[in-house]
Amino acid sequence: MKKIMSVCMLLTLFTSIHAQSGRIRISFAGFDCYRETWDDILHSDGKGDEVFFTFNFTLADRNGNSKLNYEKRTPVYGDATGPFSNRISAGSWTDIFGNNRGGIKAGDTYRCNDIIGEYDMADGDILTIIPTGWEHDPIADNSLAFSSTIRGLYNSINQKVAPVMIGFNILTGNLGGVVFNAASLGLSKVKAGGDQGELGRAGTRPIGMEKYGDFTPKLVVLNTPNLNTICNSDMGFGKGVISVNYDEVAVGNSRDHGNYSILLKVEFIPKQNTAPAPPVNTGNNTPPPPPPAATNMNNTGGFKKMNAPVTTVAGTVVGTWRGTYGNGQSNSPNFYSFRLNADGTMQLLDANNGIIANGTYSFTNNQLNGTYKYTNGGQFSVAATLSAGSLNGTWGSGSNASGGGKWVMSKAGVSATGNIR
Questions:
Q1: Would you list the domain boundaries of the chain?
Q2: Which residue, among 68, 86, 66, has the nearest Cα to 76 in the 3D structure?
Q3: Strand (E) positions, 190-279?
Q4: Which of 45, 169, 340, 404 is the most exposed place for a label (fewest CB within 10 A)?
Q5: Whole-prediction pTM value?
Q6: Contact status, residue 379 vs residue 395, Cβ threshold 8 Å
Q7: pLDDT digits over 131-186, tens only?
Q8: What angle do CA 194, 200, 203 make, to 5 degrees?
Q9: Mean pLDDT across 224-239
């Protein structure tokens, strides 16, 4: 019995750490303010702290060769009252009358689930994320120079992290081991504070800056052997959520004294390695049909189009379709249009043929099935039958192709007006 249990444990361990390819999604899950930064006594730029966050991504293979880079910047969070209405309201600060809630101070938290990057990862690939929080001032935006500097370091970062991640095993229980201080990898500090070495100088600066403007970013480094473990581990903020802390007092800056944690949520969908179907015995030695084409996603952050197999009869459904959709049992009156491509990709179009969502479809035996996704993350699925030159179908939320309503389209175009879903 002990031998059987030992074998099972070894198999489980091997399965957990064995590298595999798949799709990774990174979301901004929010932030915690343990101590706000220094601000002028008049709160001329809004009550309390106002902050935004940047996320730099660089993907490399197991040898540190760069494959792609990407950058995402959030809106500003904080006091969104009066002249600051373009911000996202966050924080519990109030004015002297106890009104106008908004503005971040010690003890405030903010939670969200905003997708900031989504990529294919091959076996052994390494994704490095550099999350930074910024105390916002409407002048002297030092984040722009910082971003330029980080972009120049992508190749160096990938070369530094690759040897560290060889054989790295998160099953040791050191879940915090995925967060590295850039200096520990031999990377130089960044002069990110601009002129803010002097107290009272306004300007956008990184939280975690040293007293005289030096800044050491932190790196979240993820590779495929450890992603399943990370995604299923609760590190205090929910499964797959990693906390990255920047504490200015800890780096000797008791003058500005900001202390924030940035939360990142990691999701990973391994690629399923399924065995090919057995050959079909046709009796005349005809070879079986070729396997489906491999999935290929365009990695620039967010949901992008993928190549998928599509069976058509002389390009029956390839082209632009226009029509209407409705809710419940109705298939009108709202405008609805697809562009169906020969490679199995599809786009949802507005009335001016602008692309508003991307996805994939299949068409076999006059049956159409598809799924598309908006840039803000909303996903819908459709199914339809081709008959007499028209597609008559249903739609639904997520992966459910029914339950929302019905739709009808034709290649010739159907005149319709209404809002676009």
A1: 20-270, 319-410
A2: 86
A3: 190-191, 205-206, 214-215, 218-223, 241-247, 259-270
A4: 169
A5: 0.60
A6: no
A7: 999 988 776 677 788 888 888 899 999 999 998 888 766 554 455 568 988 888 88
A8: 40
A9: 87
